[in-house]
Every structure is written in C-alpha cells, then in structure tokens.
C-alpha cells in the first residue's frame, strides 16, 4: 500500500524511543521528521537511526534562522546527511533562504512562514499585525522567489498559499489534529482530511500519533482516512 503523505514528528526525549516510533509508523507514512530535541541531543547519528532499513524519507526540521553565511554553513553541514527536506525560517529573508538552497542542492528547502503555534494576538505581539493569512502569503511568495521548493504553513492558510504559489511547490502543514483531539500548544489547526482537501502535500503530525497507546495503529488509522479522502475527494 502507498504510504500516506504524513511526516510523523519524532519529538522524543531519547534515540531509542524515536527509532521505535519510526519503526512502528514507517509501514503507514511516507516520512519521519527529526527536530531540534533529537538533533541537538544526538547529532547526525540520529538520521541513520530513524531511517533504519526502511529507507523512509527523513525530514530534518532545524528551522535555521541566521545571517546568510551562517545558514549556508549550517545547511552545508547537514546536506551530507541527505535529508529529503530541511527547514529554514522564511523571516530570515530572501538572501538567507537562497543561501540554504544553494548550500544543499539535493535537499528540498522548506521555508516556515508563520509558526502554527502563533495566534493572531501573538502575531501582533511580535509586530506582524494584520490577519495571519496575509503574513503567511507574504512570506510564502518571498520564500518561493528565493528558491524554496517547499513551504510550511498551517492548514488554515494552505488553500490561499496554493493559489499564490501554484502546484509545483510542496506545501507542508503542521497544526493537524484529528476531530476532537486536543490542540495543545497549536493555535491554527485543522483536521487531516481538511488539510489534504485544501491542498496540503505533506501533513506533519506528532503527538496525536506518538502519544497514542499504539503509535503504529494511530498512524494506520489516520493514513487510512487520508487514503479514502484521496480516492474520493
Ligand atoms: O516546521 C515544522 O515542522 C513546524 C512548523 C510549525 O509552524 N509548527 C509546527 O508545529 N512544526 C512542527 O510540527 C510538529 C507538530 O507536532 P504536534 O503538535 O505534536 O503534532 C512539531 O515537531 C513542530 O516542531
């Protein structure tokens, strides 16, 4: 069966747990995501551990955000690990995004627009006034212009971003919660089915899968729902 377009966020405190989750979910999903918690604790070895024998795509979520020269060096340092996707913050600006794209030519650079944990009130607090979709669209256009091949936004903006950037850009949505699930620290959320219907290519899902009693079964259930949605849109 084709794996569902889900990146499971392996936000685990230790490598054994992350590798265990990865083994449980990889029959059902296309991608696993390594974030700051694991990478800062274990470094490059973590990539091979979660990739395992399955050869699942690895999404390295380091959300780089610094001056272009520093980001170029960081992107080059991790490019040799051949992650399928590497994140940078779009707010780092066009030159920074371009530096990452040039430094990691075999990795898709995904620009994070506005974190899904930020509400409209939070945006005002950091000086990004106006509705979240406006800021997301602005940053999306800037990032694509700088060569980003993927964008990260919430499912609430994905339809608008798709309209803005067309079909060639991979749209990635965290902030995904099955119906009735706790949104926790996520502010701009939608269900997996809605995210897919609105044009997301890859859904990032962490705790709704990894905190389940059986992460493999949780991943299989969401994957089956998405496959049904793909078959009968
Ligand atoms: O870049 C990301 O993956 C990301 C961007 C964003 O705006 N919001 C966001 O939640 N994420 C990541 O997506 C994952 C969401 O996890 P859950 O909230 O547990 O589903 C975490 O690993 C976050 O670091």
From TrEMBL:
Belongs to the OMP decarboxylase family. Type 1 subfamily. NCBIfam families: PRK00230.1, pyrF. Substrate binds at residues 11, 33, 61-70, 116, 177, 186, 206-207. Pathway: Pyrimidine metabolism; UMP biosynthesis via de novo pathway; UMP from orotate: step 2/2. Keywords: Decarboxylase, Lyase, Pyrimidine biosynthesis. GO terms for molecular function: orotidine-5'-phosphate decarboxylase activity. It catalyses: orotidine 5'-phosphate + H(+) = UMP + CO2. The active site is at residues 61, 63, 66. The keyword Lyase applies. Residues 5-222 form the Orotidine 5'-phosphate decarboxylase domain. InterPro entries: Aldolase_TIM, OMPdecase, OMPdecase_AS, OMPdecase_bac, OMPdeCOase_dom, RibuloseP-bd_barrel. Catalyzes the decarboxylation of orotidine 5'-monophosphate (OMP) to uridine 5'-monophosphate (UMP). Transmembrane segments: none annotated. SMART domains: OMPdecase. It holds the Pfam family OMPdecase. Its EC number is 4.1.1.23. One of its GO terms (cellular component) is cytosol. One of its GO terms (biological process) is 'de novo' UMP biosynthetic process. Homodimer. This is Orotidine 5'-phosphate decarboxylase.
């Amino acid at each position: 069966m084709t794996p569902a377009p889900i990146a499971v966020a392996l936000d685990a405190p230790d490598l054994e747990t992350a590798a265990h989750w990865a083994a449980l979910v990889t029959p059902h999903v296309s991608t696993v995501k390594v974030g700051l918690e694991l990478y800062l604790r274990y470094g490059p070895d973590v990539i091979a551990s979660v990739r395992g024998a399955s050869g699942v795509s690895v999404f390295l979520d380091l959300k780089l955000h610094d001056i272009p020269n520093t980001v170029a060096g960081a992107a080059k340092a991790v490019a040799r690990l051949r992650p399928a996707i590497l994140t940078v913050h779009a707010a780092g600006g066009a030159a920074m995004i371009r530096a990452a794209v040039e430094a990691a030519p075999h990795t898709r650079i995904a620009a994070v627009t506005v974190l899904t944990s930020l509400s409209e009130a939070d945006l005002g607090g950091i000086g990004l006034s106006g509705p979240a979709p406006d800021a997301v669209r602005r940053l999306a256009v800037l990032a694509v212009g700088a060569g980003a091949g993927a964008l990260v936004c919430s499912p609430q903006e994905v339809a608008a971003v798709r309209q803005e950037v067309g079909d060639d850009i991979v749209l990635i949505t965290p902030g995904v919660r099955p119906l009735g699930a706790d949104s926790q620290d996520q502010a701009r959320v939608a269900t997996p089915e809605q995210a897919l219907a609105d044009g997301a290519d890859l859904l990032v899902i962490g705790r709704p899968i990894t905190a389940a009693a059986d992460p493999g079964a949780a991943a299989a259930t969401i994957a089956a729902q998405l496959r049904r949605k793909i078959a009968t849109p």
